[in-house]
Predict the structure.
Amino acid sequence: MLFKYFILSIVLMADIVGASGLARKIEQPLVDKAQASQQVTVSQTIINHLPVPQPVPVVENATQLNSLIQAQAYLLYDPDTATVLAEKNGYTKRPIASTTKLMTSLLVVEHDNLNSVVTVSYNASHQLGSLVGIVQNEQITVKNLLYAMMLDSGNDCAMALAEFTAGSSDNFVKMMNQKAAELGLTETHYADPAGYDEAGTQSSPYDVAKLMSYDLENPTIAQVIGTAHYTASDVTGNIVYNLDNSDQLVLNHYPGVIGGKTGTGSDPNQGGAGHVLVTAVKQGNVRLIGFIGATYQDLYTASATEMTKLFQFGFANLKTSG
């Protein structure tokens, strides 16, 4: 019976490519009139399982973005069709600052119980850069550290989570690079869980957009990065952290915003990350992910300003074909 189905599959494919004569020659010795209806059923089953062609999205006049977006790099990505709609230096490795934490959060939610309690180490409490302010020996849940890391971009929280998940930062970095390889992030190399320029983490706008797309499939991460405000505390409730999302599009409820992650590094003209942002937005039935890297202005709001322009242009000029 399986052999007959195999032959019938060949028959269908032969008919599809126009080789009807060949189809009849193969079919005739095996299929009699009593089996004709069965052939139709099998053929229809095969047709029903063929992939349905999807419209191909394009952004018209995309080259105009080169003068519109004031940043060294940008990328506009459609995650539902895995299509890059517009880009500048979109496939070039560069420092990505705290957008690194998209990978850190993914590994944490995949390996840890959100209700587990973390005891903060001396090392975690003595990180540099963007800090929430957790202290040595403080006990705080994975969930609260996750919110603090993603909303307030705490490097101290990133280190505490990395140590809890893998035993050490070095072990966690190995996990990060293994996961990057599994996801096909070929332009990405992680050197630390927070995204310090000095550590040497690099990725491309394309890889960051792909990672963001993957993260959004995880309901925990999607909820966290889409939260504008959150109050976290240690297990006693005596230490309280009032957190605001550092992505201005999330904080100010940009139309259709799903979530985002900021990053701030050193001077991009000296090889640093500058101001970086990756954000996802859905308007109508269309989801888009935008990446902004190294804005020309060194302002806290600069990446959000450029991202807003990127989305406004993208949605206004988006067309589908095919």
Notes: The first strand starts at residue 56 and ends at 59.
